[in-house]
Amino acid sequence: MYDVIVIGSGPGGYVAAIRCAQLGMKTAIVEKYPTLGGTCLNVGCIPSKALLDSSEHYHNAAHTFKTHGINLSNLSADITQMISRKDEVVKQNVDGIQFLMKKNKIDVHQGLGSFVNATTVKVTKDDGAATEIQGKNIIIATGSKPSTLPFIKIDKDRVITSTEALNLKEVPKHLVVIGGGVIGLELGSVYARLGAKVSVVEFMDSLIPTMDRTMGKELQKSLKKIGFEFFLKHKVTSVENAGKEVTVKAENGKGETVEIKGDYVLVSIGRRPYTEGLNAEAAGVKLTERGQIEVNDHLQTNVPNIYAIGDVVKGAMLAHKAEEEGVFVAETLVGQKPHINYNLIPGVVYTWPEVAAVGYTEEQLKEQGRKYKTGKFPFMASGRARASMDTDGLVKVLADAETDEILGVHMIGPRTADMIAEAVVAMEFRASAEDISRMSHAHPTYTEAFKEACLAATDNRALHV
């Protein structure tokens, strides 16, 4: 009998298992695929960042090295080698998780985990062989899968999801991306940098529509420079694969039909909770109409000894959110009182420039009727950004009009994925914009832009604009 069985080994699941083991619980983890790490390590965050880095190096070699005084000739992109390097990065990370399981004495059971009852999990291997394990507590961390539309047939050849986009054997001539969110723009960036024409079809009137609208507008400007075109406020009505050409039909805001033809179509309209084969009903676990697992504030399901975390429950589908929830449940099980402030979980888009945000958007503050002030600072005015030729974008700080407490920070620019951590720390300690503006930031650094935006929010005191 285990103290805890974790079903799913993505960032939420494996982190939950490690924390449970650290706290002295006998722990098992169940994973249906041959490798640990879930979507994030195998076909998500890690491989996409590997390809983003490779393609960014190529793009800079083709477009900015000459300005830096570096002359190249006969430059070419070897997509096969890029994919091979990506695979090696994935292997190193996956092997690292396997090592952590051994180090923490966590039993790994490979096979599909399904409930027999509230304390028993059946593990079924690909060959049909099955074993049963018992656990006092069970954590469901089965993650998510790419969503699609009912009339789109994902053939994994020309009409693909993010999984297939990570393994293309050629650079598309024309990649049509359905969905202007994080995944579509990141993977679109990879191939745009390598020479593909990229067309983005988005139902909403803005890119990255869940983020502050300023970010979407700025990102659209930057991506246009590398060959993106955008069809905003377009509703996709059909996708037809004719062999080596795929036709996407969409209806624009005027009700007119627009046709876009490409050699590949990437469907990236979000992700859905993955519970297929889990047999949750055998344990009495309730699911919502959207297929999510219902949980309370303690991430506990309606069955007291069963918990659920990550993409399979409500909230943003982010690896680091799942990790926090994994630790939260582990600590809750031993009687500790952990907490998660969901408003302060940052979101990042790993395009270039990067987009990063934490806290409330300007649209949310308006909706709340909250009085706020805004401070902005463009990277064009940053000495460090000029030195590296990364002048697109800005930092935007939203602060309470009366107390000056920072309510939201939205960044688009170089290395903002790393810079946002300072804003998270500040907001966890309920810092004011003036607090940040009075802290010394090394010069020249990108982070000075955050200080300057805070100065701008504090009586419009920015020094370098």
From TrEMBL:
Occurrences of domain FAD/NAD(P)-binding (ranges): 2-326
Catalytic activity, reaction form: N(6)-[(R)-dihydrolipoyl]-L-lysyl-[protein] + NAD(+) = N(6)-[(R)-lipoyl]-L-lysyl-[protein] + NADH + H(+)
Known cofactor(s): FAD
SUPFAM superfamilies listed in its UniProt record: FAD/NAD(P)-binding domain (SSF51905), FAD/NAD-linked reductases, dimerisation (C-terminal) domain (SSF55424)
Superkingdom of source: Bacteria
Domain Pyridine nucleotide-disulphide oxidoreductase dimerisation: 345-453
Pfam families, alphabetized: Pyr_redox_2, Pyr_redox_dim
Alphabetical list of PROSITE patterns matching this protein: PYRIDINE_REDOX_1 (PS00076)
EC code(s) of this entry: 1.8.1.4
Assigned keywords, A-Z: Disulfide bond, FAD, Flavoprotein, NAD, Oxidoreductase, Redox-active center
Keyword Acetylation: no
Name of the protein described by the UniProt record: Dihydrolipoyl dehydrogenase
Source species of the chain: Algoriphagus oliviformis
